[in-house]
Specification:
This protein has 76 residues and is mainly alpha-helical. It has helices at 3-28, 32-72. The longest helix has 41 residues, at 32-72.
Length: 76
């Protein structure tokens, strides 16, 4: 992708994302601490999901490498 359209679209997307967070903070106001406390469990679930996905991909890569090395073994 050419640099100019990439930079323009990235700036637009970042601006929208930033205004969304500012609006969320403004809307929550003083009740933000309660929201942040409740949302912490969602953060933990996301981290566990990411770690599980990474472990699965590493496992699959190791399994594929073992199969490929057996297929290349001419002594069998």
């Amino acid at each position: 992708m050419p640099l100019a359209p990439f930079a323009l679209l990235t700036a637009i997307g970042s601006t929208i994302w930033s205004f969304a967070f500012v609006g969320l903070g403004y809307g929550l106001g003083s009740s933000y601490t309660g929201f942040e406390h409740d949302f912490r469990y969602v953060e933990y679930a996301i981290v566990v999901g990411i770690v599980a996905a990474l472990a699965y991909f590493v496992y699959r890569r190791i399994a594929v490498a073992k199969v490929a090395s057996r297929a290349d073994d001419s002594s069998r």
